[in-house]
Recover the amino acids of this structure.
C-alpha cells in the first residue's frame, strides 16, 4: 500500500508540487499585505494623534494671552469681552462699541491697564460721580480694611463713597435700622434710590463683614 502511494507521488509530483507552491505563495502575499495594512493604520492613527496635539497647543497658549472683562454702563454694547494681556480701559470701551452719547468720559481713566475678571463701569452724565479710582475700574477690591462696612458705617462714613450723598446715606442707615444688618452688598438694591447701576458703582467700596 505504501509503495503504491510512493509510486503515485513519483508519477504526479509536478501536479502536486506546483499547485501547492502557488497556494503557499498566495498565502504569503496575503499575510504580508495584511501586515502592511495594519502598520499603515497604526501610522495614520499616530499621525492623527500627533496632529491633534499640535492643534491643541496653540489654543492653550492663546487662552493664556487673553484676559476677560465685563464692560457695563454707558457704552453702546455692554457685555463680556476677551482682550489681549496689557490692554487698557480704552480698548475695552472700543470693543464695547465706544462710549454712548450719555457717557461721562470723566468717570473713567481710559489709559489704565485692565486686569483679568475685572469690571469696567462707565457712568452717565446724570450720575455725576467723580473719577472712578483704579480699584473700581479694573475690578480689584483693594485692601479689605479700606472698605466701608454697611452694618457699622455712619452717615459720614457712607458719604465718603462716590455716588452716595447725604440723602442716600440717610436712606441706607434707615433701611438698616428697620430691617436689621445687611446680609450682602446686593441688599442695597432694596434701599430707595439705589438701582442696579448705582449698586455697581458702590460695590467696590463696601462690605458687610
Amino acid at each position: 500500500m505504501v509503495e503504491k502511494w510512493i509510486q503515485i507521488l513519483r508519477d504526479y509530483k509536478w501536479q502536486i508540487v506546483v499547485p501547492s507552491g502557488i497556494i503557499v505563495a498566495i498565502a504569503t502575499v496575503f499575510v504580508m499585505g495584511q501586515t502592511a495594512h495594519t502598520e499603515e493604520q497604526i501610522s495614520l492613527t499616530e499621525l492623527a494623534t500627533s496632529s491633534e496635539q499640535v492643534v491643541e497647543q496653540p489654543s492653550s497658549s492663546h487662552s493664556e494671552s487673553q484676559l476677560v472683562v465685563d464692560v457695563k454702563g454707558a457704552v453702546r454694547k455692554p457685555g463680556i469681552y476677551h482682550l489681549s494681556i496689557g490692554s487698557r480701559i480704552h480698548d475695552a470701551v472700543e470693543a464695547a462699541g465706544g462710549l454712548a452719547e450719555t457717557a461721562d468720559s470723566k468717570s473713567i481713566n481710559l489709559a489704565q491697564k485692565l486686569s483679568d475678571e475685572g469690571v469696567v463701569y462707565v457712568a452717565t452724565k446724570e450720575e455725576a460721580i467723580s473719577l472712578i479710582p483704579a480699584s473700581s475700574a479694573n475690578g480689584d477690591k483693594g485692601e479689605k480694611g479700606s472698605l466701608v462696612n454697611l452694618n457699622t458705617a455712619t452717615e459720614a462714613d457712607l458719604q465718603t463713597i462716590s455716588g452716595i450723598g447725604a440723602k442716600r446715606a440717610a436712606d441706607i442707615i434707615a433701611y438698616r435700622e428697620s430691617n436689621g444688618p445687611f446680609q450682602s452688598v446686593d441688599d442695597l438694591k432694596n434701599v430707595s434710590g439705589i438701582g442696579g447701576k448705582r449698586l455697581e458703582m458702590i460695590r467696590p467700596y463696601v462690605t458687610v463683614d
